Amino acid sequence: MTPEPGFVKAPRRYDTTGRRDRAMRTRANILKVAEELFLRNGYAATTVAAVAAAAGVSVETIYKTFRGKPGLIGAIQRSALAGTGAVPAADRSDEISALDLPPRTVLRHWATLTTEVIPRVAPIILLVRAAAATDPDMGMLLTEINDQRLRRMQHNASRLNERGTLRGGMSIEQARDVMVAYSAPELYEILVTRQHWSVDSYGDFVYRGLVAELLDDEPR
Question: What gap in Å lies between CA 184 and CA 26, rounded to an integer?
Fold first, then answer.
């Protein structure tokens, strides 16, 4: 049909929201597929081409989005560290420590957050550690992950120190190192993966250990 003289066709609206949602779903699917392949086959044996084929995208998409295998692993680790809630685990941790709660309650919440993220985070970090022995990119990523965890635990230790709840004579650095030890992927590997503890039992162990090492003997 021929439009009437003077008729101006309205410009077609571009659905940026839909495009962004599709991109996010594609990204999430790539990470899910890549995580499964890496943990099943190992870092070296998992190729970008294999991830692309399994995720139903092009190799170019993987490189454009993640810049190759190290970027994929880093993105998987960050996704796992955020936890399963709508709010990232680190933000929830800060919200908890900002409330006027007994220190044992804060540590219980922190231990619970650990049980939320560690089942996904630990296998990835252990994969990076194994690959770092022969792959310089993985060595750099492992250093970055370890530094990130150290900074996070320094932050948490400072929060406790500001509340005046640290055991007498304990420095922020000592408290940080205690929290680094109790959140280590190696501890999860020993107790849950090898010795078949339940995640809840592991969380109770982390909580009791943090209380015993960080707080005064008398509850506050």
Answer: 31
Distance from chain centroid for Cα 118: 8
Question: How remote is the C-alpha of 44 from its chain's centroid?
Answer: 22
Query: Which amino acid appears at position 126 of this protein?
Result: L
SS3 4: coil
Q: Selecting from 1.10.3910, 1.10.357, 1.10.40, 1.20.120, what CATH number does the domain 73-214 have?
A: 1.10.357
Quote the pTM value. Answer: 0.83
pLDDT averaged over 10-residue windows placed end to end, the chain, 220 residues: 56 66 87 95 95 94 93 94 90 90 93 95 96 94 95 94 87 96 96 97 97 76
- 16-67 maps to which CATH number? 1.10.10.60
